[in-house]
Every structure is written in C-alpha cells, then in structure tokens.
Design brief:
Shape: globular
Radius of gyration: 19 Å
Number of helices: 9
Number of domains: 1
CATH superfamily: Acetylglutamate kinase-like
Number of strands: 16
Strand order of the largest sheet: 5-8-2-1-11-15-16-14
CATH architecture: 3-Layer(aba) Sandwich
Distance between the termini: 45 Å
Helix content: 40-55%
CATH class: Alpha Beta
Order of helices and strands: HEHEHEEHEEEHEEEHEEEEHHEHE
CATH topology: Carbamate kinase
Length: 290
C-alpha cells in the first residue's frame, strides 16, 4: 500500500474511533482548569486553543477556567515586588491584588481568548468580578486579599454557552463590598463545575496524574474514587501543590459533577487523547459508588 494511503487510512481509523465519544459528549458541559505551567510554551498554548475549538465544533460545551501563578510572580518581580507565600498561598496586599488582576485579567485571559479566536469568533473573556460570577470572603487576614469561594452565579456562563461560545474565566472574585480577591484557580474550577452540573471537570497540570506514593512514577493511579482520594489526603501521600486539586475534585463530585480528570497539560493534544480515544490518559476520578 502506498505510504500516503496508509497514513490516510490510519487517520480515518482514528476519526471513526472518536465517533462514539463525540456522540456521548455532545451537548455536555466540560470545565477545563488550564494551569499556569501548562500554558507556558506558545506551541502548547496554540494546541490547547485548537483542541478546545474542536470540542465546541463537535457539540461539546467547554468552559475554560485559568490560573496564572507563574505569570503573576513574573509580573510582580518586573514591578519590583518579591512574591511571598504562606502554606502555599500567595500573600496578597493591596498592591499585589492589583498586579493579580493585571496578570490574570489583563494579560493571561486575553492571550487565551486571542489564541482560541484565531480559529474563529468563539471565545469570550470573563473574570469572577463580571455579573457577580464568583463571590468570596476573606480566607485569612494574614494573607490579605486571598479569598475563599462562597458562591457561584453561573447565569453569565449559561448565556455565553447558549450562544455556542466558549467562556474563558480568570479567577478573581469579589466580596459583598465589591473588593477584589485572589482565589485558588483549582478551587474555583471545582466550584464552577458543580454550579454548572458539568459532565466532566478536567485539570491540566504539570504532572502525569495522581500518584499513590509521590514521587514514585510507578505509583500513578489511572482511576480512583473520591473515598480513596480522601484516604490519600489523610495519609499525607499527596504533594502540596496537588492538594487543592484533590479537595476540589472531591467537592465537585460530591455536588453533581460526574467525573474529574487530572491530566498532564504538557502533552500535545492531551484533551483529545482523554476524550476521544479508548485508552484515555492521566487519572480519572469517579464517585464512591462506581
């Protein structure tokens, strides 16, 4: 067989294998937490944008929630302010919360929206300050303007999705007085997924998934239940950076989200590999009764 024909046949086989999954997820909402490390190279950012557009075009409703920790720290240093953390949380004074807004809303959000919109007019940028989307309260006075989510009003997201557009959400929230707060993006993604009753919650991060014995790469868990995750958390087996993801996974699945996935966002087309192939990738989190 001619090599070009063989290559074309392989592509056709892959497309036909994807068809059942396209049917299964058509019309379903998927919340994707796009992490700061997963977006660091232009090549990966371009592939992510193309994959999200493809998901929309085959009938899925992707909702992108993004962080930007490295970008915030970089902007702080360029402005002469050294980042400070307590127990993994960024200390956020009045000046820092303005820098957070500049980095997340003014830079990262616009870059993601622009990357998606290179493929057509699909993406709409939002922050938690828009239309009362993310309500928060202060987490700890010692941390300054760092907030915990108290409520999600998904009305604006529903309106955008109903127009067959892709919401791209920066994780800045407000309290009852309109004060802006920095919020953990993993926690926000889980709360938004629960508010939307999403089919899936996906975390793109910088590890292959959840490990039973971190950092032993042979202990990667392809599938785990919420109850098993709570055991791992209680036993101290989860790395510090993964704890907010695990906690929000458990909360989301306990509040109506069907599945959660931890994927390595550094892999090209990782979303397509997870959604449209038999093998899947990373770690899938399911409810206790499955």
């Amino acid at each position: 067989m001619d090599e070009r024909v063989a290559t074309a046949a392989e592509k056709a086989t892959i497309l036909s294998e994807a068809l059942p999954y396209i049917r299964e997820f058509s019309g379903r909402t998927v919340v994707i937490k796009y992490g700061g490390h997963a977006m660091e190279t232009p090549e990966l950012a371009a592939l992510f944008a193309a994959d999200v557009v493809l998901m929309r075009l085959v009938g899925m409703n992707p909702v992108v929630v993004h962080g930007g920790g490295p970008q915030i720290s970089d902007l702080m240093r360029r402005l002469g302010k050294e980042p400070e953390f307590v127990d993994g949380r960024r200390v956020t004074d009045t000046e820092t919360v303005d820098i957070v807004r500049m980095a997340l809303v003014g830079k990262v959000n616009r870059e993601i929206v622009a990357a998606i919109n290179r493929h057509g007019p699909y993406a709409v940028g939002l922050s938690g300050e828009d239309a009362g989307l993310i309500r928060v309260e202060q987490r700890d006075p010692a941390l300054g303007f760092v907030g915990d989510v108290t409520g999600i009003d998904p009305t604006i997201i529903h309106r955008i999705v109903n127009e067959e557009l892709i919401p791209v959400i920066a994780t800045v929230g407000v309290d009852d007085d309109g004060q802006a707060y920095n919020i953990n993006a993993d926690t926000v993604a889980g709360a938004i997924a629960a508010a939307l009753q999403a089919e899936k919650l996906v975390y793109l991060t910088d590890v292959a998934g959840i490990y039973e014995r971190w950092p032993d790469e042979d202990s990667l868990l392809p599938q785990v239940t919420t109850k098993q995750l709570e055991v791992l958390l209680g036993g101290g087996a989860i790395s510090e950076g993964m704890i907010p993801k695990i906690e929000s996974c458990v909360a989301a699945l306990r509040n109506g989200v069907r599945r959660a996935h931890i994927l390595d966002g550094r892999l090209p087309h990782v979303l397509l590999l997870e959604f449209f192939t038999r093998e899947g990738i990373g770690t899938m989190v399911s409810g206790d009764d499955e």
